[in-house]
Design a protein that fits this description.
By secondary structure, the chain is mostly helical. Helices cover about 60% and strands about 0% of the residues. The radius of gyration is 21 Å and the shape is rod-shaped. The structure holds zinc ion.
Length: about 80
Amino acid sequence: MKCPSCGKSLNPRAVRCTGCGTRLIRPSDKLARKMTAGRGLSLACGGLLVWLAVFLFFNDAMLFGTITAVAGAALLFLGKTMNRR
Ligand SMILES: [Zn+2]
């Protein structure tokens, strides 16, 4: 691979450019970080929706509660299955 700022040829496993010191970000790293962020977000939203569903059930909003519970469970499931290789 080549350094994006100075063009020096580098070891593909290098973390920093040996010529100019630029920190190198590989596409796979970016993707992994994005996946982790997405997973955390869907888990957080799923958890929030499940709590909202419980709240709705206690307020006799069964239909909205059911929809919210299903959506929350789907998000939690999505977050748990994500990041598995
Ligand atoms: Zn460089």
